[in-house]
From TrEMBL:
Coiled coil: none annotated. Residues 4-142, 172-312 form the Sodium/calcium exchanger membrane region domain. One of its GO terms (molecular function) is calcium, potassium:sodium antiporter activity. The chain crosses the membrane at residues 6-29, 36-56, 76-95, 102-118, 124-142, 173-191, 206-229, 241-262, 268-288, 297-317. It is found in: Membrane. InterPro entries: K/Na/Ca-exchanger, NaCa_Exmemb, NCX_ion-bd_dom_sf. The lineage of its organism: Bacteria, Pseudomonadati, Pseudomonadota, Alphaproteobacteria, Emcibacterales. It is a multi-pass membrane protein. The keyword Membrane applies. This is Calcium/sodium antiporter.
């Protein structure tokens, strides 16, 4: 039964990812909004739903460090795995002023979050600050949408993958919502099945949580980026990852800290937070220049993530 869950989850992720990208691109066309803005907001926040569910559940269950670990782990996986693995399959590129600006916002938000962690435990005022920054970011995105609305439709008409007759707006919304729901549910049943299978093989629960759960909550982002790269929508791919990372730090950690104090383990201050920041810096050239994310660079990102997991697994075993 568990094997059927895993296969079914994977199939659902593929179908839902394709629906999500198609709906997002058509919606951008119909509304005259840049695909980057759609990727940075609707798609990014939607694909962060698993992290949000884990964060809220952890806070209500009295385990806020689980939310912290999931956010830091997911942000690291979003850069190294979610950007690296699709590039191994289909190299892609994106050069867009909005991507560059939001990339710097992601970097600044990561540095700020690290500084806040050194004042741990994270309390209500930390959470309030992070949520205020989230609202500021959303307002910034809204202003960027107004600036680019007139130019976006012309640009979209020349992009590969946009159908000659895009979906009607209501169909775009249905595809977008259905794709998001499918991604969240697909990731859920896949992770549940994988955890049971791993337990049957005697894999330690700490390792299961470190790998399967952390990667599982990043599966919606991963499938979205793969489908976006397949259709040559590099801006949606980059926008999804950048927006998801910003949302994870501001919204999920903000809500968690507002609900309950969040202690920060020493290992996070000495390693994990810095790995998250270092991973973000690795895609610096691709956010600033019209440079293709090649297979070799994708391999480097993916191997970096595998190495990080290997180190953590050995550390836990020791």
């Amino acid at each position: 039964m568990e094997y059927i869950q895993v296969v079914g989850g994977l199939v659902l992720l593929v179908i839902a990812g394709d629906m999500l990208v198609g709906g997002a691109v058509s919606m951008a066309y119909r509304l005259g909004i840049s695909k980057v803005v759609i990727g940075l907001t609707v798609v990014a926040f939607g694909t962060s739903a698993p992290e949000l569910v884990v964060g809220v559940d952890a806070a209500l269950s009295g385990a806020p460090t689980l939310a912290l670990g999931n956010v830091v782990g997911s942000n690291t996986a979003n850069i190294l795995l979610v950007m690296g693995l699709p590039a191994l399959i289909i190299p892609f590129t994106c050069y867009n002023l909005e991507v560059r600006n939001n990339y710097f916002i992601m970097l600044v938000s990561s540095v700020l979050f690290i500084l806040l962690c050194f004042t741990a435990p994270l309390r209500w005022w930390h959470g309030s600050l992070l949520l205020l920054l989230l609202f500021g970011y959303l307002f910034h995105s809204y202003r960027e949408t107004r600036k680019t609305r007139r130019l976006a439709r012309e640009a979209l008409e020349d992009v590969e993958g946009v159908p000659e007759k895009p979906l009607a707006l209501w169909k775009s919304i249905v595809y977008l919502a259905g794709g998001l729901a499918g991604l969240v549910y697909g990731a859920h049943i896949l992770v549940d099945g994988a955890v049971i299978i791993a337990s049957d093989f005697g894999v330690p629960k700490a390792v299961i949580g470190l790998t399967i759960v952390a990667i599982g909550t990043s599966l919606p982002e991963l499938m979205t980026v793969i489908m976006a790269a397949k259709h040559r929508h590099g801006d949606v791919a980059f926008g999804n990852v950048i927006g998801s990372n910003i949302f994870n730090l501001f919204a999920i950690m903000g809500a968690t800290a507002l609900t309950t104090p969040v202690p920060v383990p020493r290992d996070f201050l000495t390693l994990d937070l810095w790995v998250m920041l270092g991973a973000s810096l690795m895609v610096f050239p691709f956010a600033l220049r019209n440079k293709e994310l090649t297979r070799s660079w994708g391999a480097l990102l993916t191997l970096g993530y595998m190495g990080y997991l290997l180190y953590l697994s050995r550390h836990l075993a020791g």
